Amino acid sequence: MLGPGRGTPADPAEERLRRFLSTVQVNWSDANSVEHGASLANEIHAAHLLPLDGAGHGLDPADSERITHAILNHTSIAPPIR
């Protein structure tokens, strides 16, 4: 299989991401390109992207309530794993 738009063999890690059976919450800081976070979330079935403005490379305690609510919302709407 070819990688997306590259015309080269797909990265084995990308192939593994496509096989996730559980739901995934992708928390992504704008310290890195949000487009990269969106790309990661798009590679994982049923993933949800939560952009975190100004969070840097760690989780800021100020974001803990927002992250908690996002995870609870994400897991409550997730289909059961079979």
Q: Could you please describe the fold and organization of this structure?
A:
This protein has 82 residues and is an alpha+beta fold. The chain has a domain at 22-76. It has three helices and two strands, in the order H-E-H-E-H. The protein has helices spanning 12-17, 34-43, 64-76; strands at 24-29, 47-52. Strand 1, helix 2 (34-43) and strand 2 (47-52) form a beta-alpha-beta unit. The longest helix is centred in the C-terminal third of the chain and has 13 residues, at 64-76. It starts with 11 loop residues before the first helix and ends in a 6-residue tail after the last helix.
In short:
With 82 residues, the chain is α+β, with helices and mostly antiparallel strands.
**Unreliably modeled segments:** none
Largest sheet: 2 strands, parallel
Shape: flat
Rg (CA only): 14 Å
Give the helix/strand layout.
Elements lengths: L11 H6 L6 E6 L4 H10 L3 E6 L11 H13 L6
Parallel strand pairs: 1-2
Can you give keywords for this protein?
82 residues; alpha+beta; two-stranded parallel ribbon; 3 helices; 2 strands; flat
